[in-house]
Design brief:
The complex is a heterodimer of chains A (about 150) and B (about 100). With about 150 residues, chain A is α+β, with helices and mostly antiparallel strands. Chain A is about 30% helix and about 30% strand. Chain A is globular. In chain B, a hairpin with a 2-residue loop joins strand 1 and strand 2. Classes of the chains: A alpha+beta (about 150), B alpha/beta (about 100).
């Protein structure tokens, strides 16, 4: 059985690109209670931005749909972020996670999953074509003694 | 995203200010292309010192600017890149393709 988080936030928003900034800023503000460094906050914001952008660009390419974001704090300062959509899904997740792979054309770099992997401790992608995608990321925030 | 453009002889510096994400990327690409087409510089310096956040969307912007400059027989480089953006470029290996300072 999964352990319960000591705290969480849950947000639903429409897949408009203007919400990318809102999503990463909201998670950063929530994570501030874990006393992260600026570097750690930057990593978290970047990973959230990548996951939310993927949902906006790829899950709902020609329409607007719901994106659900949940950030939870577990013991030992573990932050878990789940970004879920109900869009078109990914047929081949392994291929999508490869560096430089993109279906987004010249405006995308194909590096989103690579960035998420390198900035977080764990990344899980579950997807079903026609049903949607769930991206789960975990990052342990270093515990620091006071007096920083 | 806000832009400042200065041109001296055949060298152009474009200063970016704001958050460079997918939402801002298309407008940023268009702004850079418009400026480059108008002045046809041989050197393009993208000043990132005012970029307060960047994700992988910035990689596509930078690589596109570099390709445009190479097509003109010139080159592009980055200056003033903050630590957060630098980390994104390095995770993607982009520092091997373009000078990032």
């Amino acid at each position: 059985m999964k352990r319960k988080p000591s705290n969480y936030i849950a947000l639903d928003f429409l897949s408009r690109s203007v919400n990318e900034g809102f999503a990463r800023t909201a998670v950063a503000a929530f994570a501030a209670q874990m006393d992260p460094t600026l570097d750690e906050l930057g990593d978290i914001k970047t990973a959230v931005s990548e996951a939310v952008t993927n949902a906006i660009v790829h899950a709902y390419p020609d329409s607007l749909g719901k994106i659900s974001l949940r950030a939870s704090i577990f013991e030992e300062n573990l932050l878990e972020i789940v970004v879920r959509d109900w869009g078109c899904g990914i047929a081949d997740v392994e291929q999508a996670r490869e560096p430089l792979y993109t279906t987004g054309g010249a405006e995308r770099s194909g590096m989103g999953f690579t960035i998420m992997e390198s900035f977080m401790d764990a990344l899980q992608v579950r997807s079903k074509p026609g049903r949607g995608t769930v991206v789960t990321m975990k990052r342990r925030i270093a515990m620091r003694s006071n007096g920083r | 995203m806000e832009f400042g453009i200065t041109t001296k002889e055949r060298s152009m510096t474009i200063t970016l200010r704001g958050e460079l994400d997918h939402h801002a990327a298309r407008g940023t690409m268009q702004e850079i292309e418009r400026a480059v087409e108008a002045a046809l510089p041989l050197q393009l310096v993208l000043d990132f010192s005012g970029v307060t956040f960047m994700d992988s969307s910035g990689i596509a912007v930078v690589l596109r600017a570099q390709r445009r400059m190479q097509a003109l027989g010139g080159a592009a480089e980055l200056q003033g890149t903050p630590a957060q953006a630098k980390k994104v470029f390095e995770a993607a290996g982009i520092h091997r393709l373009i000078s990032i300072r």
